Known about the structure:
Order of helices and strands of chain A: EHEHEHEHEHEHEHEHEEEHEH
Radius of gyration of chain A: 19 Å
Largest sheet of chain A: 7 strands, mixed
CATH architecture of the largest domain in chain A: 3-Layer(aba) Sandwich
Number of strands of chain A: 12
Oligomer: homotrimer
Amino acid sequence: MKRLLVQFDTDPHPAVFDRVVAIDAGCDHLFSYGGITTENVVSLCHGAMFTRGLQDLKSTAIFIGGSDAEAGVELLKRIQETFFGPMRVSVMVDSNGCNTTAAAAVQCAARHLPLGGAESVVLGGTGPVGFRAAQLLAVEGATVRLASRYIERAEAACARLRQLVDGAKVLPAETSDEGLAATLDGAQVIIAAGAAGVQFLTGDEWRSVESLKVLIDLNAVPPAGLQGVEPGDKATERDGIVCYGALGVGGLKMKIHKAAIEQLFSANDRVLDTVAIHRLASELA
Amino acid sequence: MKRLLVQFDTDPHPAVFDRVVAIDAGCDHLFSYGGITTENVVSLCHGAMFTRGLQDLKSTAIFIGGSDAEAGVELLKRIQETFFGPMRVSVMVDSNGCNTTAAAAVQCAARHLPLGGAESVVLGGTGPVGFRAAQLLAVEGATVRLASRYIERAEAACARLRQLVDGAKVLPAETSDEGLAATLDGAQVIIAAGAAGVQFLTGDEWRSVESLKVLIDLNAVPPAGLQGVEPGDKATERDGIVCYGALGVGGLKMKIHKAAIEQLFSANDRVLDTVAIHRLASELA
Amino acid sequence: MKRLLVQFDTDPHPAVFDRVVAIDAGCDHLFSYGGITTENVVSLCHGAMFTRGLQDLKSTAIFIGGSDAEAGVELLKRIQETFFGPMRVSVMVDSNGCNTTAAAAVQCAARHLPLGGAESVVLGGTGPVGFRAAQLLAVEGATVRLASRYIERAEAACARLRQLVDGAKVLPAETSDEGLAATLDGAQVIIAAGAAGVQFLTGDEWRSVESLKVLIDLNAVPPAGLQGVEPGDKATERDGIVCYGALGVGGLKMKIHKAAIEQLFSANDRVLDTVAIHRLASELA
């Protein structure tokens, strides 16, 4: 059976990026859709469920993408409600690459210290990638300070995280000038996942954190989110700190993305969400 | 030459169902379009006609789909008007699967009694599948009672059928409580092709038809259109009556659909409409 | 690596024509987009640039099509601005087939006389194909009379041509009854590239041009743009003049189109615009 991937994108045009990766991961045909909503997805989903026999259903799968991570989560939910009994196909969600990027960043950190009990800070923790990096750090047992410019948003994100992760040790934190020192105090891992153009820390600021071991900047576009960290940094030591830039994390992110696509076709009931992609990333390491 | 299928769908998003079947029927590439109308189809159609040499034109074909069967018929007409001389490609129309489903249902009935002269009833005969089932029964020489909740609609459908099928023996019939007994009296074949959620007959009602031999319910979603017939029924005997449910007919429908796609590529001038698909189904049996 | 072609079409539906040619030229997968603008192209372009490693980037390429040639030129410009350093993929622009058609027409003329110093006339020279034919004749050193029904438009087109081609010998000309004789006087090559339904010259008119050697009519739909020239003419002699019709030029046009698609995948930095496609066509001859 040909491997068919149905790409549901919440943006008007289905992402070229996800299409290239899907082909390079071995899909035979892509059925790409833009403008997908929880309303119009149902009949398309039926088309994926009701065409092939049960023993062949594992050769059809669904990929959810688009720039809106929340819309992607809603779509996954609606698709899972549409499935019933054995009538289902595997599904992966990676809106804007948020799951594979967060999994890759956390995996990079895990190479250099045990995450269980580690002190971690996620700057830009309310964005799609930052929130998922915080979630995965919490899953691994790290203490997470989830930082935002607005403490109310950080608090709301922490409340959501506690619902997602049993026993999550997460604390809201501030990136304002006044709150920054407290946010960084004692941190061993810092992951910056802000919007392009936002510099979270100067070089002096992160060098002053004595406990710091790993510094990860997921912003690829200058200026750097963490001053002095280069996009190409890949376990590069800077002043005794292990640094990763966006491109340094990107190779692993791509490897995880491809492995996840391949795993979709191993059975007809895989659900590759944030945590499942993280588990897969751990196995790859 | 690669086998190219151009999918023209009258819905905004081209159906996943038709895409999966096309690939499984051996198409190398699908060019899938949603939102196709009699206006925008012409230049796309030119693109299919004017790219390959005459000897290679049979490796390009058109599939018309979408949820609106009438729009599909209009599209077929416009596409045929666009062709001229040898500049044409083969075309299949199967909006909402109505042609392959009707052909499969009639083929199932034909396994159990000769249709020429048979007394048949089509419940939901004004819908896209029911109307085509009635058409094909008439083509085979059966007497058809085409039943609807509204006798006026049944009459209009019968008038259209008489234009489509020379010498068609079709009569309008009612599914109302008062008219039902007359509608069913003497029936040997009953096909139910209503909308999801419509129960046409109770078990007592169909069991009381002494002449009945074959009972086909094309509704896959509970409640059944014919009480007691299960979706998986496939020549299943119930109280001496041969029963078929939607899934029981579905296997043959899929086989017909794939065979039709394959036949598109045997020449550049095939036109697979309701009757042509029925002829193909008869050859498969 | 699979050869991926990203088709950016400025029309709502991506052209079937360009898709068929792309597959026949050896592309493994097409990612086809309609409704592409200079605004929405950027993130799709990033998806093509940032997915594969540098050594594999040559297996991804972009094709720009659609009925609006000016929109295609703008799209090419925006895409080239999006690339940086080695992060780029090859791009071809052939909106409405204008570049491959113009290159094929000029190549046909070049078979029968040296174009350097030749006297040429392009009727319908302000349209997308005519303008590019005039451009390529000028590139080859021909004197070009660029004719339009409106002399102001012809003058504007000549001004643009002089900016595009260093030392272009181009003159505006009229197709009105009064101006026609002067337009045609001394012409060795006449290319007609008007809209369907426009007859530029009667048979008597072109036969009266004593210097004439080659006559090319790019209109495929009757009536002919040049009376007496048949669509299938391919170096057909008529009254001592070598004639080409749209279909006669079309074979070479298709050959150029396919060769251009193939060349896209020879490196990751090809830019196949009007002149580059013309150069490629010269090499094919």
